[in-house]
Amino acid sequence: MNIKLTVGLPCALLLGSLVHCGGGRSGAETSSLAPLVTSQPQDQAVKAPASATFYATASGDPAPTYQWALNGVPIPGATSNAFTTAGTDSSMTGQVYTLTATNSLGSATSAGAALTVTGPPVITTQPASATVRLGDTGTFSVAAAGLGGLTYEWSRNGSTLEGVTGPTCSVPAVSPDLTGGSYTVKVTSPSGSATSNPAILTVAYGPVIAVQPASRGVKAPDPVEFKVEAKGNPVVFQWFRNGIALAGANEATWSVPVTTVAMNGDVYQVEVTCADVSLWSDKAILNVSGAPVITAQPRGVSLLAGSAFSLTVEAVGVPEALTYQWNKDGDPIPGATAPTFAVAQAAVGDAGSYSVTVSNAAGSTESLKAKVAVTAGYTVGGTVTAGGEPVAGAILTLGTSPVRTATNDAFGAFAFAGVLPGTYVLTPSIPAFSAVISPASHTLTVPDDGKASFTAVLGYTVSGTLTGAGAGTTYLSLQPAGGGTPQGAAHLDLGGGSGFTFRGVPPGTYTLTGRTDLYDKGVPNAHDPAGTLAAPVTVRGGDVAGLVLALAAGAPDLSLLPAPAFTASGMDSGIVLDYAPVTSAGVEQPQFYQVDWSTDPEFATLSGTRRLSPSAGHLLILTGGLPADGTVYHVRMRGVGPATATPWSPPASVPVGPASGLLSASGTVSFATPPTGPLVVGLRDLASGRAWMTRLPSPVSPQPFSISGIPPSSPGSYQLIAFLDQDANGVPSFGDAVRTQTVAMDQDLPGLAPVLPSAACTAQVATRHSRPGGTDAYALAFTLKDGIRHVASAQVVSGPNLPVPASLGTNGGSSVLTYEAAVTARPAVGDTYTILATYQDGTTGTLTTQVTGVLDLFPSLDAPMGTGDGSGSSADLQPAFAWTGTFPPAFHLAFSLTGPGVSWGVPALPPTTTSLDWSVDPGDPANRVTGSLAVGTPCAWTLAVTDDSGNASQVTAAYTP
Prior knowledge:
Keywords: Immunoglobulin domain
CATH topology of the largest domain: Immunoglobulin-like
Strand order of the largest sheet: 80-77-76-90-89-85-86-88
Low-confidence stretches: 1-29, 523-527
Helix content: under 10%
Organism: Mesoterricola silvestris
Structural class: mainly beta
GO molecular function: carbohydrate binding; cell-cell adhesion mediator activity
Protein name: Ig-like domain-containing protein
Pfam families: Ig_3 (PF13927)
Mean pLDDT: 82
């Protein structure tokens, strides 16, 4: 059929084909033809086991593809216009085969062709063996398929049972002589016969215990045997010791090859089972006598002369009356006849080898020897200096047991006397200063290493007040003017006071910055939409006080921003929303998102509404018991702030219900811990935002799932996501166990097997390397991510080059806690840090993380170009920033610029990037500059090189427009 179209006419849906009118020349002609079955498949009749072939033809333009179906279900691989079965049997009679032809204009399905198979009958269900109680009736059944009438002939032990000619054979009033009988059935049709597998009849009776097990007495370590006599069929034994089943103890006799006094009083009992009836024997007691057995040996000790020590032994024996005699170097110690031997003040002569002999009426046992070492001890000492001068008043902590402390003198010296040989950690602190001490701690081995020297950098105090509208937590930092790691951060709650203090600040020039946590995210480096002002700070030879930092209220006017964009997909009893955040200057602006859904396209009435907090996943599962019957719901969305909101997004119309056809994905979800809360599992197309998901209210482990209606993926992969929605908020949030992975989808995808994690949370440390003023500086960036629990706060409790404990701060509604701190020396790969995490419920957990790398790849920064003619207008200031350097493909670059009243950052540039134009983010057009440049106002710009583990090296340069 030819269809002639003329450009300029309206687009139309013609004969099932959507004709696109977006271009072309006037008078152009287009020909198309939907599929049409031109030759129908014919019924087939064959004799088993011959194969059967079905054939059909179809026309269409474009040429159609083919798919055969059996009883309406597509046959994998049957994609030509002919299909031949692999073989046949009589159970296939009545199967119906159809062919569907498909092209871009539609599809056509042929009439059904039926298959008839002649041949001997097929036994579809074999008779099963049976255990029947004495006197009851045993029953065997068979199921078979075949053409024509079927007849049945039952046999026992090869002999035909007269009169038993149906599919069921009953054996009434079974007797013991019938046990072990083999029953078979021969099924006959006009085309042949088939004989079943044998089914065995077991006649059960009993049990009856004829002889009970008897209590036994024995002297350790002799063996002992318990025995029972029982009658019944089939008889099974299970022996128990003190109520616990003994593995492998399934005979009428149970033997204990070696006895000990610890077994005295053990109770043995046997359970005798015949089919479905069990009987317990009487209890038999094991009485064991023997010499004492030492259950806890005395342990050696090393101590200083004048210290106390004690040695203790624990033993059992039968009879239970025990006596003790302690020995030193093989000789009895007069009067030492108790389980514990103690010396109040040890002398060097008390050193030696100690043992104890424990006795009862059945014999004696000597303990292992315990070595006691008594020494005069050693001295551990050293100095603490700052700038070459001694520091008085430093406190040194030595990790002995118990811990010892010492304070150094006016000459900076300290000493610990009487230290036993061993390995200890020596840690300094200076209460009068917030000093940075190098090394942060020293590990020494006594007596080989008894000296330690520490160098301190004594800083000054920087303090002041903060002003700003609104309550909330504010994070302050002192940023060195030449770049590098901030000196510290203060957490200030505007509701409880406005004073702040930094201690231990070395001399230098800094910028004091602050940012209010407007939406209670609780992350120190989170970018809230609150405005930020900066103040210069110079530290010379003393404390700096009286600073005032004014923060703008900064709540954004969301009415000036676009509505959020989203994609809605239907699922069983719900809707999946995949949305893009509303951002400005790379910062997500709304306090929350509002989602409405209704069967009314005008939203005059609502079926439901939700508030959604910003999250990294930008995924929401709406499940409100929506009927999975194809009802169409209309969904809209907007971002909401404290006082303003974005416009409503254009509504999306979504039918609710499971999809069908196309491809399917299936498998099982396993859980490392017992699942609680509903399970959401499905596939996401991250490119388009479409999703195909299912929600299982009460999952088990492993939990099967199956999702259909999935189109082939393009460019070739989807995201498989599974999470336990433990807080039932429809979002993968902290406290939820989440697992994602990438899967290809070009055909049905069975066998998916995601395992949800059990880790409470995970910790990571990354290094930061910079060179302010040409001097290497290092910092550590810690990141804690929620697993199945939410981290409320954390602190580093051990690790090199870092004063510990070091607080990582507190965390509110975010699932990630981050903190950055300067260290006193270059980190090394393998440096290990221990973190104590406090969870939302008040419990704690210990995490460890290691340094994976330190980067020394520094780009070379060029002077910014194209800054205009100096007129001073913001439009005139459009610099281009350029750099040189070669970096591995797995790395990425991060650009940032800060200055009074202006900031901009581009976090993820490809490693081949060599320049960046001001205010143009090639990866995110919505990432705009905050504030503006001003002629003559100095700024600093930084370029960081980052590997895939988060380790970074960065260079900072000054820039004055």
